[in-house]
Amino acid sequence: MAEPAPAEAAPWTATVLTLFPEMFPGPLGHSLGGKALADGLWALGTVDIRAYARDRHRTVDDTPYGGGAGMVMRPDVVSDAIAAHHAPDSGRRLLYLSPRGRRLGQPLVRELAAGPGVTLVCGRYEGLDQRAIDAWSERGGLEEVSIGDVVLSGGEPAALVLLDAVVRLLPGVTGKTESLDNDSFEDGLLEYPHYTRPRDWDGRPVPDVLISGHHARVAQWRREQAEAITRARRPDLWAAYAESEG
Ligand code: ADE
User: Fold this and answer.
1) Domain locations in the chain?
2) Which end of the chain is flanked by fewer CB atoms within 10 Å, N or C?
3) Does the annotation list 172 as a binding residue?
4) What is the DSSP letter of 211?
5) CATH architecture entry for 12-167
6) 105 C-alpha to center of ligand 1: Å?
7) Cα 134 from chain centroid?
8) Per-residue pLDDT for 7 more than 50?
9) Is 217 a catalytic site residue?
10) With contact defined as beta carbons under 8 Å apart, do 97 and 162 qualify?
């Protein structure tokens, strides 16, 4: 895929450094995000890390010092790829997807959406040589980000998750901004349940209050539902919410 347009005209831009550029845009080429990509509301560039290999075998990884299973991505190769595609003064955040990173959540997603874009580094195998992580943390503000306490086979699916979450918040991507305000986590609660036609399905009626036409009662019911679901399923969120509500 081609690199995105020059900075002055650039929309929110993601540059993904990966050994598998063909995985992108993948699911991001569909639905809301895909239409927004086609419409130029955001831009995506991929960089094949292998292009920065130094030998004729195009080696990007090697066995770990100290022994053990798996392969480690070489710091020289990955660092050259980052240096060629990430300008530390661009204002774009440099993120390395890793299960050891700061946990991705809606606050970080909102921060990223408010900025000019991101450079994402995807690791494979056992991950990246620690020296490349250290060097770019010092030099370019690299941050490690995890999408949750699961181990994926590489950073690419995590990058897709992160980008999906950010892109839907970009101006013009999601139709009604009201639907964003109601999202789970936006007010510290999980979202209330939704219903549509038919009004009776399989012996299960839609709750009466939703048919009442009383906006205030609907809003109150939805808040109660959101609170009950959050309390039952996510004691951690509930504790933080209860504290913030005083
Ligand atoms: N790479 C492998 N597992 C990951 C995770 N949970 N989050 C981000 N990147 C990863």
Assistant:
1) 12-167, 182-245
2) C
3) no
4) G
5) 3-Layer(aba) Sandwich (3.40)
6) 14
7) 22
8) no
9) no
10) yes
